[in-house]
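Researcher: Let's run the pair from yesterday's discussion. Sequence first, then tokens, for each.
Model: Starting with the first of the pair.
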Amino acid sequence: QPALAFEFPLGRPDVVSSEGGDTITVEVIEQTLDALLPSSVSMHYSTGSGYTSLAMQNSGGMLFEATLPVLQCGDVLEYYFTAQIVTGSTFAEPSASPDETFIASLAAVVSVGDEDDFESGGPDWTVGSGDDDATTGVWVLDDPIGTAAQPEDDHSSIGSECWFTGQGSVGGSLGEEDVDSGKTTLTSPLYELADTDGAMIELWYWYSNDQGSSFDDSFVVEVTDNGTDWIVAHSQSGSTAQWERLVIHLQQFVSPTNAVQIRFIASDLGAGSIVEAAIDDLVVHEFLCADCNGNGLDDTAEVLAGTALDCNANGIPDECDISSGLSADVDSDLTPDECQCPVFFIRGDTNDDESVDVSDAVYALEYMFNSGPEPMPSESADVNGDGDTNIADAVYLLAYLFTSGPEPVAPFPNVGCP
């Protein structure tokens, strides 16, 4: 056995917050006399542009944790773990990483979209496709009669029905209604995901192909975003002989359109064998990528719908611009100041060179008494902020510059609104 093993006492996440802060905990178990090098425990993650390594911190005993940073929402996170023993050998989980990794989706908001425990029928599901040719074992929605290959009970805690391949008779033979001489297909209804930033399908399935003399068949799960191009998302070649959980991160395979579907194909294509499959308890988890105000709605969707104001057109609701400090709101009216300001300037910078000095006083006097160019904007010459531009402003500015007089009124010394 390997010197080190890895366990996840808090489980592994299917979804990680793109806003950062999620912590993953791993327990490293010493299985031989070789001792762990604690400083070597690391998490390695990638969103598609190479792996980044995080040193995991010991949180007591043999537990180590890593806190994830802010990552791009909508991406898929691939990750794995490594640790060394004092003699230098490195062990990984999964053991075949980085060729095989754990996967999680990155999202800011997760909500449940479609879900079906199949206890109320499945009228929107379709049995069969143009090239199906199985002679028995066609998909059926019912309470299964258990055999050595087929479940006796559905997966749901309440109810009894699920989709499975062929209903035999009580006491019938093992192969009475298993999949024979071809394939049978079960296709979901359309999932409308165009208003999301991605989604994940979670379901439970059963598959058996090891009760006959041949074990060369497989159970295939495919997804599409247009009803034409189907992509394999999962292929099961060995029997589960029990209900197994399956998670499909759709953004790995398809775009979030309003024509997303999933289908399940059970086949008996080689030598005759006993093939049974079943599915139950399917849930579509929908992802949104920005929810700065924590109201459960995607920021972009709110702005587009007009339910959130975005006066500066930066794609962020105004209230979030203000709460994050990105925008000022001096009068506390929940509208960023820049949206209420006709022009930005520095008070006293009459020649608009972004500094305030004696040349600005000269510029203002030239305008007032010698037909010089007008200050731009005109408000910049109203140094004392009384609403008028006259000799008093030039005197005010010169006093500030040379006799420690009061500074020009806001906006000063930085660019801003009056």
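Model: Moving on to the second of the pair.
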Amino acid sequence: MRIRTGLRIAALVPMLMALVVGCALVFSYQAVRSAQERGRAVKRVISGVNGLNSLVGEYLIYHEERPRQQFLAEHDSLTRLLSSLEFPEAQRQGLGMVRGNTESLKELFADLTSNYELLQRNPENVALKRTEERLAGQLLVRSRQAVADGLRLERLIDDGIASTQARVGWLVVSLILATTLPLTFLLMAMMRSVSASIRRVQKGTEIIGSGDLAHRIGMPSNDEMGLLSQAFDRMTGKLQASEKRLRDLSVQLLAAQEEERRRMALEIHDGLSSTLSAAKHRVERILADGANHPEWQEVAAQLSRTMEESRRVQMALRPSVLDDLGMLPALNWLVRETVQAYPHIRVEKQFGLEENDIPEYLKTVIFRVSQEAVNNIAKHSAANLVNLSLQKVDSRIELSIQDNGRGFDPAEASGRTQKGLGLLGMRERTELSGGFFHIESARGKGTMIRATWRLG
């Protein structure tokens, strides 16, 4: 699911829940209001029945026409009220009982008035008196039954109101639970998914930012984070291809540079050195023939120094021992040359591999990194001890050069001095050949340079 879709669902569900709850509350309000109106009507019925009962008592005491007419008018009004009422099925039986008792009151009151008219004509008739008493008692009982039925009907209405409110309350709670719980789980799942995706993207960017352009975040999901990681992977692929082209070009440039060094060293050896050697031999023959002139001796000495300088330049450009004998002899030659040029420096070397353990394409790189490191130490570190180590560890070749010199801050040295340029050159040679370059140094604590190449 897309994050946008999930957020839309999370926004719509509370709106729908609010709409349903609102409708339920409106329904509850209307139902309660209708029930309250019915309750008020029942109260009026009860009040009317009590009024009829009072009129009956007044009539029995005074036997006047006014209570009789008032009873009939009140009864007609009460009958119309009862006829207009519409109650739910559960309350209709109670309403019918009230209606029946109310109609009985009218019939009994009519019998009472008729019996009183007969009693007026026969005042001594005991049977008529007993009939009057019986009808009065029946009227009282009927009115009490009507009031009791009204009260029961009122309780039913109150119970209906409470039941309606309870049902609406349970409906609201059920809706809240039915929407909140799934929505909570949805949001928590989205939060976990987004958090995991963010952590994965963050970790991938950190790995890629450290220089590993071969790394891919590789999120297959089709949500926004997945699309972002896929776009990032495509960008990384393009950067990797661009870096590979630059690396290939740099490797070609380094190879061309080494080839040009080899060519120049060969030309010096075959041209200049041969010419100087022939000239020296010529002068030595002249001196051997008896020409002991001081100028010829000076020429011979100058030629010797020039030949030695020519040999030094030739070896600096491309040591022939590297091509003739191999990597390890070339490093031994480098150590001897360093000790000879800087007698105060002691160089300790440890070689934990054989010549055939070193791939051909790494031999020149290892020699140049070692040469640059040793030259930097001799010129800048004021060290008197250098440890040169070349080891094969598992499937890796590790080169380390350590000194006990004054040390420096790599961040300050990078790119500002000849030392910085030398460090940059060593790093570029190492990384362009597929290795990893690391330097540790601090002021007063010496320097450790480590280059590592993975084999295979």
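Researcher: Give me one sentence on the second I can quote.
Model: The longest helix spans residues 126-209.
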